[in-house]
Amino acid sequence: MQMRIKMNVKAVDGSRVPDDVANTINVVPDKEGEDYRSFAPTK
User: Fold this and answer.
1) Dist. CA 32–CA 11, nearest whole Å
2) Are 3 and 22 in contact (CB under 8 A)?
3) Does the pLDDT of residue 9 top 80, yes or no?
4) How many CA atoms lie within 13 A of 16 on its CB side?
5) How far apart, in whole angstroms, are the C-alpha atoms of residue 42 and residue 10?
6) DSSP letters along 13-40, please?
7) Exposed e or buried b per residue across 12-40, where buried means at least 16 C-beta atoms within 10 angstroms of its C-beta
8) At 42, which helix (H) or strand (E)?
9) Each residue of 11-39: pLDDT tens digit?
10) Is there a smaller number of Cβ atoms within 10 Å at the N or the C end of the chain?
11) Alpha carbon distance 2, 9 (integer Å)
């Protein structure tokens, strides 16, 4: 599944800053309520 977020925010100087962000969920936890941080890559 994918998610798309469109926004049109106002900058400090008052000008409009449109943006478009799209992402895909790559990891789904096995159990409901699982902490998403446990899936973060380790260094």
Assistant:
1) 38
2) yes
3) yes
4) 4
5) 36
6) TS-EEEEEEEEE-----SSTT--GGGGS
7) eeeeeeeeeeeeeeeeeeeeeeeeeeeee
8) none
9) 999 999 989 999 887 776 666 655 666 66
10) C
11) 22
* Rounded CA separation 9/6 (Å): 10
pTM of the full structure: 0.41
Give the pair of three-digit tokens for residue 8.
């049109």
Find the largest Cα–Cα distance for the chain.
Answer: 46
- The sign of the CA dihedral 12, 16, 17, 21 is positive
Query: Which of 16, 37, 13, 17 is CA-nearest to residue 27?
Result: 37
